[in-house]
Amino acid sequence: xxxxxxxxxxxxxxxxxxxxxxxxxxxxxxxxxxxxxxxxxxxxxxxxxxxxxxxxxxxxxxxxxxxxxxxxxxxxxxxxxxxxxxxxxxxxxxxxxxxxxxxxxxxxxxxxxxxxxxxxxxxxxxxxxxxxxxxxxxxxxxxxxxxxxxxxxxxxxxxxxxxxxxxxxxxxxxxxxxxxxxxxxxxxxxxxxxxxxxxxxxxxxxxxxxxxxxxxxxxxxxxxxxxxxxxxxxxxxxxxxxxxxxxxxxxxxxxxxxxxxxxxxxxxxxxxxxxxxxxxxxxxxxxxxxxxxxxxxxxxxxxxxxxxxxxxxxxxxxxxxxxxxxxxxxxxxxxxxxxxxxxxxxxxxxxxxxxxxxxxxxxxxxxxxxxxxxxxxxxxxxxxxxxxxxxxxxxxxxxxxxxxxxxxxxxxxxxxxxxxxxxxxxxxxxxxxxxxxxxxxxxxxxxx
Amino acid sequence: xxxxxxxxxxxxxxxxxxxxxxxxxxxxxxxxxxxxxxxxxxxxxxxxxxxxxxxxxxxxxxxxxxxxxxxxxxxxxxxxxxxxxxxxxxxxxxxxxxxxxxxxxxxxxxxxxxxxxxxxxxxxxxxxxxxxxxxxxxxxxxxxxxxxxxxxxxxxxxxxxxxxxxxxxxxxxxxxxxxxxxxxxxxxxxxxxxxxxxxxxxxxxxxxxxxxxxxxxxxxxxxxxxxxxxxxxxxxxxxxxxxxxxxxxxxxxxxxxxxxxxxxxxxxxxxxxxxxxxxxxxxxxxxxxxxxxxxxxxxxxxxxxxxxxxx
Lengths: 448, 311
Hints:
The complex is a heterodimer. Chain A is of the alpha/beta class. Chain A has 16 helices and 15 strands.
């Protein structure tokens, strides 16, 4: 009997609830509603997704309280408090496109900030364009987003991943010009393949005499690296390039160290910086590490960096890692653009001396900027962030450009320190507008 | 031709959906689109399940259909919706006809695992293909339908139209088929293969045919999904995706061709609202739903409707 009736009732009630929730009318603007999308489950949640979420919550609290350092001291964004809805990025691009539509159309957010997976960024960008919703891509690395297409409503406030491999190669050749034999171990998915291809192309361009011995491509999330480690040991390269991250990197380090792989080969960890504190004693001295930008230990001291470290530590009791820096860049970029749009409106309003419609014009000038005005202010914007100055110069003013840095580790008093830090300007490590990354590397880093 | 109740209902619902299109909010339309695409795939799963087979690898055809559609767009540069779906159906039909030669010999867990293996082979191949974007996949955008260019709202309605019409047409034809002589063999095969053979029917030919039909349905679903979402990646043939199809098939039940479509709609709606209201535990919401259905409604959601009418 009755269980059927009960379930039927449940279905009816759920449907009714759904309709009534959707039908709720929108009140007038008293806050800025941000949809924040990040991995809350799956392998990328631990190292990237959750730190980004913690950072976002800390940043929103701090901005809403007006406690950020100048020029970000106004409360919220342009005086309006930020209201944040968080959703999970797990589940693949198909689901993310559906959920993006939900955020924009059912939740009616003003702006979407998010996406760590490159596939999700590629999939969501055209939908943002279709729905005409300002979207700030958070942490994905693929250069294809703005190299394969151009967008009006989509911005990415962190540099793309090409510079990681290019600067890693430059740093390696600067510090070890005699390097002869190189191998790689990277995950067999888009980021791992791109990272290795860029590194291989750069080294062939800068120093054709270097011999590429092998490229190990274990599958994503493999966990066991016995065969790859044996292959690396037997070929004994001078240097091993790796873009491993998360559990994969930790497992590889734990398995490779007892087998003395690092006695004969120096390691280059493109994305290794966030793991230094997790692997004390396991990262051999002399390992070259990066943080995919001037994040973490590479961030130059500034009030912005001190602010992020303080509010992040208060929440997580850890130093922020690079997804946390990317999150700060996205929020501060949006805030800077919004507030610039406000100033632009006021400064372009008719002068006080004009005779007609002064009241109306001034009211208009002081009203919150609309999306088109925010986008106009965002394009080609330069703003301060905890990792330094961010310049939105690529992708017709929609893609950020920054320099990056690499350093070398040494183990000291129980902690891993990074020394010999070298900075690389954005112009040296990022392709110019209109040239795809691989073409630019193969052309010998030509700039017009 | 005298139409049965289900066929009439399909026609009525198709007309009603198309007529309601302008009144639907955009999010509801995209929710319907995604559900219908899943529904098409699960229609094929239903046919297999009626035949007594469960495929853990239907993502293979779902993904293949989508990549065939992507090839039409990216390589041939003909971004036409109709052609994309046709390519998806053709590619999956051919592959299924070949793989069916082997798979039609297996039953139960062997069939399930072998189909899973084939889907993971495709996954491995796609992940290794940098030219196809590896795990990131690539974007596709359909710009016309039957050669007529569509933009903005016209594009939206065209996508909705082709999704509704093809899904409902698939359901209509499958419903007719299930009532045909060979269609009725499905349950007979599930119950007792030996008897079917004694009756003079070929079990293997029937299973092979049903495998191809279900693959083509999955291919159409995949191609439609590619058109709707605008992005395809190897995740479409990864095992959790295939698992999701089994999930929806069990949730819906196999009582009627409406079951998979309704089941997909319920699944997508629950998932969508769970994402929104419990971002940290949306998987658990789906899991609990599944448990409740399995414990109280072993015949799937469809059995709720069946109980009403006298046997």
